[in-house]
Each structure stands twice: as C-alpha cells, then as structure tokens.
Specification:
This protein is an alpha/beta fold and 187 residues long. The chain is built from four helices and nine strands, in the order E-H-H-E-H-E-E-E-E-E-E-E-H.
Length: 187
Amino acid sequence: MKPNIFFTADHHFGHANIIKFSERPFESPEHMNEELIKRWNEKIKENDIVYHLGDVSLGKPDFTKEVLDQLNGKIHLIKGNHEYSALRVPGRFEWIKDYDEIYIEDEEAKTGKQKITLLHYSMRTWNGSHRGTWQLYGHSHGTLPDDEMSLSLDVGVDCHNFYPISYEEVKELMKKKRWEPPFAPRN
C-alpha cells in the first residue's frame, strides 16, 4: 500500500504563549500538546510521509523527543526559526533541511509529477513558480492573506483546524486558485 503524503508546520509544542499569540482554542499548553498529537495521529499512519515545515517545538530537547516519539509517520523536517530542540533529536527525522524541492507522482499533473517547493517562510516567487510549481510554507500562523493568483499555501496547523493537510487536500485547494501560467498563449 502506497503511503499517504502530508504537510504541516508550526506546532510549537510546549509553547504556552502561542495559545495567546495565535488565539488557539486550548486551555493550557498541556491541552494543546495533547490535542495536536491526537489530531496528527488521527490522520497520519505509521508509514505515511510527513513534511514538517518548521517550528516543531519550543520545549526542551527531552520533552521534544517525548512528543516526537508519539507521532506517527516518517517525518522530514524543513527548519523553522524555532528548532533548537528538534535539532537535538535528529534521529527522529528522515532528513533535516533548510529548503527542498520535491516531486509527487500525480497523473493529473502536466508531467505526471507535481513539483513542490518547501520552505518555512512564504515567498512571492520561487523556482518554477511561473510553470505551476507549488510553494508550501508555515511561519505566519494564518496571518498572511491567501493569494488566489499564486500557487502558494500556508500548511501551518493554525490554518487547518490543527491537523496536518494531505497532498490531496493541498491539491484541491490549489485547484481553486485563479493562477494562470504567465507565458501561456492567450486566446
């Protein structure tokens, strides 16, 4: 069975102030951590692939390891600006990078593969943006207005009811965009 692919960002496990800063609907950091772990594991199974686009945890390394050990999936980490503890548990990640460009097999994509640029931060333009490459990001906690003319998307938990978002869900959101290739022939 082919693993599912998911994207997410900005869990901020162990960060009490994120509840206030991002107006998260949790009573305490413990409640937030518990609910984020539960929602992660509701969607992600053991062999699913997860691209986490940064800011996993603000807790200490031991706490972060304890949380990561409870999460399903094969996690790939794109570093955010709050990765001190996650970087001290490198064995939990398939890899850790600053940036990546991935290809997802998709028979509906023009070449049979969808190219996706992964970075913690939103970009206005990126490699292949004029050719239909998507850009997924976190960091902004839903504070940036979505640009319907751009194939970029905030995959942070604050934007998706505190769940990771699947490739198929991302694809459906991208289909709703009004982006057009800038060099396409005009009728």
